[in-house]
Amino acid sequence: MSTLFDPFTLGPLTLPNRLVMAPLTRSRADEGDVPSDIAVTYYTQRATAGLIISEATQISAQGKGYPKTPGIFTEAQVAGWRKVTDSVHAAGGRIFLQLWHVGRISHPSTQVGGILPVGPSAIKPAGKIYTSSGTEQEFVTPRALDLSEIPGIVQQYVDGAKNAKTAGFDGVEVHSANGYLLDQFLRDGTNQRTDAYGGSVENRARLLLEVTEAVIEVWGKDSVGVRLSPYSNFDDMHDSDPVTTFTYVAQKLRDLGIVYLHVIEPVNSDHPMAMPESETNPIAPILHKAFGGTFMLNGGYNKQTGNAALKSGEADLICYGVPFIANPDLVERYRTDAALNTPDPSSFYSGSVGGYTDYPTLAEAARQSQ
Ligand SMILES: Cc1cc2nc3c(=O)[nH]c(=O)nc-3n(C[C@H](O)[C@H](O)[C@H](O)COP(=O)(O)O)c2cc1C
How remote is the CA of residue 104 from the centroid of ligand 1, in Å? Predict the structure, then answer.
């Protein structure tokens, strides 16, 4: 029976433990969406994680949705990420890049030239989005991508994957969760296309599968993971039959042989990403069975629930988000049953060092109290 502190073989990597740091947008990139020097510190502080997954990183200007998120499509961005990966590796860590295209979750004020964001269909999300002007604005109705533009979208992921290699990452995670472009194609609440990329489950899954296959061409299947959030209704997402949709996706990803499938299904019902269905009818065990390979779970886990999920065989790896924001040495704290720092949500997406690189490790806290 495995615990969080047992090593795990992930493709060519040996993870020293089974705690994965979740992809976490922190909105602190420099001008030109270049990862900042404090990002080097932030990621290096967390290098004892079995694996770090970087914050979502836009693969193109079109794929950008929020202010100050980093990209992976210019030389300066690649050079900025290189500093992060070199430093994480020097500290003994491993890091994947999360490849991101936001699709409709953007705003003309964030798009170059003030153009409309794109999506599978011209369906406006309910709600508002935080923009570069520092204010929240109503979402707009996106422009539906033309069939002729789809190969260009796949190419954006290929370019991002190649750049991630140049930047020294150990692998990539295709972000197909949380209501962004690939998730928008998967679910019928956002995809009402009538061409080969809409309608049937096979058609709605086509873009994700084409992207994953193309990214595997760059990296090899042992270094590519995929993230899904089947029940999340974040950013106005909905599917009429998530079990059928996502079981098909898990089977196809199994056939492609990706190195892990990462599923967000919160363990507790009061979690912000929980939906009622996930309490009564969990989908993760169904997807685990359909996928059959390395399975990563995320959503509200702590040491005890993480270990329980590993012991029962529900998952091979447990991914922690907020706990890693507030505890750079989360692995050590769990290992020694030490108290955890309290996260400060007000600085999740803002500020510089404050709430980013100034959460103390146990050793620093001990020094400060002397
Ligand atoms: C501040 C913040 C930023 C996030 N950014 C991302 C992101 O860039 N990509 C992503 O897939 N999920 C993102 N998420 C979701 C987390 O990866 C994770 O699914 C969520 O925090 C639940 O895990 P937890 O309960 O361990 O925190 C973010 C969550 C938070 C709180």
Answer: 19
Pocket of ligand 1, beta carbon within 6 A: 22-25, 55-56, 98, 175, 177-178, 227, 264, 273, 298-301, 320-323, 348
Instruction: Answer whether residue 65 is part of any domain.
Output: yes
Q: How far is the CA of 196 from the centre of ligand 1 (A)?
A: 31
Q: Looking at ligand 1, which residue's alpha carbon is closest to its atom 29?
A: 24
The span from the CA of 50 to the CA of 21, in Å, is 8
42 assigned to active site: no
Report if residue 1 sits inside a domain.
Answer: no
Q: What's the total number of domains in the chain?
A: 1
The answer as to whether 295 is a domain residue is yes
Position in ligand 1 atom list of the atom nearest CA 325 = 1
Question: Per the domain annotation, does 2 fall within a domain?
Answer: no
> What pTM was computed for the model?
0.98
- Residue 320 CA to ligand 1 centre (angstroms): 8
- Give dist(CA 204, CA 114) in Å, integer: 28
Residues ≥6 apart with Cβ < 8 Å to 85: 95, 167, 168, 169, 170
pLDDT in tens, the chain (370 residues): 789 999 999 999 999 999 999 999 999 999 999 999 999 999 999 999 999 999 999 999 999 999 999 999 999 999 999 999 999 999 999 999 999 999 999 999 999 999 999 999 999 999 999 998 888 999 999 999 999 999 999 999 999 999 999 999 999 999 999 999 999 999 999 999 999 999 999 999 999 999 999 999 999 999 999 999 999 888 999 999 999 999 999 999 999 999 999 999 988 877 877 777 776 789 999 999 999 999 999 999 999 999 999 999 999 999 999 999 999 999 999 999 999 999 999 999 987 899 999 999 999 998 888 7
Ramachandran angles phi, psi of 13, nearest 5°: -100, 145
Task: Determine phi and psi for 226, rounding to 5 degrees.
Answer: -135, 140
SS3 content of the chain, % helix, strand, coil (to 5): 35, 15, 45
Where residue 58 sits, what CATH number does that domain have?
A: 3.20.20.70
Residue numbers of the domain that contains 321: 8-368
